[in-house]
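>> Question from a student workshop board

For tomorrow's exercise we were told to take the sequence and the ligand below, predict the bound structure, and bring the output to class. My setup keeps failing. Could a helper post the expected result so I can at least see what it should look like? The ligand is fe (iii) ion.
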Amino acid sequence: MQHRSRVIVGVLSMAILVQGWRTNVVLAAPRVVPPAPTCAAPARATPSQTEGPFYKANTPQRTSLIEQGMGGTKLIVTGYVLSPDCRPVPGAWLDFWQADDRGEYDNTGFRMRGHQFTDNAGVYYLETVMPGLYTGRTRHIHVKVRAPNGPTLTTQLYVPGEAQNARDGIFNPALVVTMRDAPEGKIATFNFIVALR
Ligand code: FE
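>> Workshop helper replied:
Here is what the output should look like for this input. Compare the format with yours to find the bug.
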């Protein structure tokens, strides 16, 4: 009897070990799939906004701006790049740049800067942290978007429910992302409408 219970305890701890190992493995959460876009043709192009003083060209190609030791709330931004007739645009170029969680831009290197291309379904996917506030502005992420043969759209994305939105002179409600809480942080969705030529 005693022997049997020791066996049971042994099997149980094995199970816990295996469970623990599994948990570690699934920590790399599956990529968030944005909801199918709601779009009525002809769709109005996404409004442009000023580039501001901190854009840098030649950013690294990457979908995650998160680097070792970075603070802040994890944020995923995903969605579609669509044409004015509501068709997904594969291979569209998106170049993101933003302040870190302390509201600071990296103007010497490329921290919190990166470009990527939409996949065959016209989907982009950015892993980053919630940008910090800096003097005079509400929370925002800068982005340039361009269809393969189209003009470049320069704009900014905003966060819903941010108190500073009402006090920011260039804030545009048409550029507010849809945001929800996730176990690891926040998930934002936004669809861009860009000209094809
Ligand atoms: Fe800015």
